[in-house]
Amino acid sequence: MFVTKEYNRENALAYAKRWALDRNPLFFSFNGIGGDCTNFASQCIFAGSCVMNYTPTYGWYYISSNDRTPSWSGVQFFYDFMVNNKEQGPFATEVTADRIEKGDIIQLGNDEGLFYHTLVVTDKADNEIYIAAHSDDYYNRKLSSYDYAYIRYLHIEGIRFEIQGGDVCFKTLINGGIEPFEEDS
Questions:
Q1: What is the DSSP letter of 103?
Q2: What is the pLDDT of residues 9-63, one digit of tens each?
Q3: pTM, whole model, 2 decimals?
Q4: Sign of the C-alpha dihedral, residues 147, 144, 73, 115?
Q5: Number of domains in the chain
Q6: 127-135: long-range contacts (C-beta < 8 A, 24 or more apart)?
Q7: 30: number of Cβ within 10 Å
Q8: Strand ranges (DSSP E) for the chain?
Q9: Of 118, 62, 60, which is closest to residue 89 (Cα–Cα)?
Q10: 129-151: buried (b, 16+ CB within 10 Å) or exposed (e) per residue?
């Protein structure tokens, strides 16, 4: 059974601040081979969720540079997973700029409509959005300083995760027992 928990924006932001200008040795850097922007955004979201989706090919996970889903580091694959995920892991909704919050994601596109860059929102103040990013590393860069043809805003709605033993409670209640309640808490 899946339950939903709140996305921990503070943890995502703390991670972005710590690693925007550096590389976490737990993760391969894709600089020079396609870019590291979506990999970094995925790390930030993972810091705010601590839940991955281990579905082969179509999930969202990272074990190593050779054992990960395309959605972990690919701009369009990331978008497709986040807005279509109905299973375990984070999920997002495409929104307008006024609904974006700290810890959310922005993606930039070119004249052909291909999205090529993923950014993490670090702040909103004085009609400006600030971001953190990898490939060209930035922390609290103004979004207005970027040149792009298209933009989309992804609001992280929450995190789904699976809980085990959903019917253990019923079995305990119906049988008049108490012990399995301790396992469920």
A1: T
A2: 999 999 999 999 999 999 988 888 878 899 999 999 999 999 999 999 999 999 9
A3: 0.87
A4: negative
A5: 1
A6: 129/97, 129/100, 131/106, 132/16, 132/17, 132/20, 132/40, 132/44, 133/20, 133/37, 133/40, 134/20, 134/23, 134/29, 134/31, 134/35, 134/36, 134/37, 134/39, 134/40, 135/31, 135/35, 135/36, 135/37
A7: 19
A8: 2-5, 62-64, 67-68, 89-95, 105-109, 115-125, 128-133, 138-142, 150-162
A9: 60
A10: bbbbbbbebbbebebeeeeeeee
Identify residue 150 by its one-letter amino acid code: Y
Domain limits for position 148: 2-184
* pLDDT of amino acid 166: 56
Can you tell me whether residue 131 is helix, strand or coil?
strand
Residue 72 to residue 95: CA distance in whole angstroms: 21
